[in-house]
Amino acid sequence: MSALQTLVEMGFSENSAKKALAVTGGGGVEQAMEWLLAHADDPGINDPPAEDVTGAASGHSLGSQPAAEKNEAGEKSEAGDAKMETSDAKMEASDAKMEASDAKMEASDAKMEASDAKMEASDAPENKSEETGESSADGEAAKSIKCDDCGKLFKTSEEVEFHAVKSGHSNFSESTEEKKPLSEEEREQKKRELAEKIKQRRREREEIEEKEARERERKRIQMGQEIAERKRIMQEQEMIRIAEERRREKLEDKIARQKIKDQIEADKKARKEMFANKEATAQPPPPKPQPVAQPAQKKEYTTTRLQIRLPSGSPLVQEFKAKETLSAVRLWISLNRKDGAPTDEPFNLSMSFPRKNFSDEDMDKPLDVLGLVPSAVLMISK
Length: 382
Fold this sequence. Notes:
The chain is of the alpha+beta class. Among the domains are: 180 residues, no CATH class; 79 residues, Ubiquitin-like (UB roll) (Roll), CATH 3.10.20.90. It contains ten helices and eight strands. The strands form two sheets. It has a five-stranded mixed beta sheet, with helices on one face. Strands 2-1-3 form a three-stranded antiparallel beta sheet. β1 and β2 form a beta hairpin.
């Protein structure tokens, strides 16, 4: 079984497996799996590889198979689970980008040191043989590169650079030990670790989405409460304005009535004094010309007293300005009726004597024009 097929059976997509094999230089399943686990969050990890990467991967895994046939087989071999893992990896890519960037910055020095160590190893193979305890006279060729910090073995320089970036290790040397392939148990263990990691990230994403949904619902409820509170405040302000206007009108009427009373009292006093002077004098005064009777002027009313009878029979009594429209009376009834009916329930207004039903056109007419001054009785009906 080829390395590409082994990675596909472990749950990786064929495109990502080809990229891993190309980057690691055909170093084997273990190096390719380490590269895939480290770059699982990279964007475009499952995109089709470029021509050069495809050629390298095909040279390692598929031999002389044509490029067109290999691409077609790669597209058909993508399984449903691999697509789900790709979607999860793309959603988590934005969070992992910053961490990967920091790790690459921290490991840049390590990469340089690893490159220097590699060049020293190629320029002075005798010194490397002495450091590893091997004799150059034996003629045994180096089979791997060993990390002196952790003891891991690597076959290619690409694996060494990848390990240096991932771990931050910088001490490497050539070794005659041959790197052993992963056993079946080790591959299964890697596969389980990868599946557990994917499940953990999926759970974290679901928790974040649930938290965001709760936050949106809380904001929606809060917005509804704020709208209801603003509506209540506007209604209160409107009622306060109407009550203040009526108090001012009552005060003006009271002052006007008081002036009329004072004038009447002054006229009475003047007449009493005039009669007293007549009795005191012997001669009657010359007759005064009789005032010409003037027709009585129609009294102008500024307010009206309305009695509103609800469908339940209970009455409402309220004073309104004579110039207020019938729609203002309708609004006041909607806000003050106490028969349990909803404030937005529609109703009609009518008079019993003379019989009249008020239409929508009458709502914009003043009360004095509609004949509701100085008092009237209105009936409410559904």
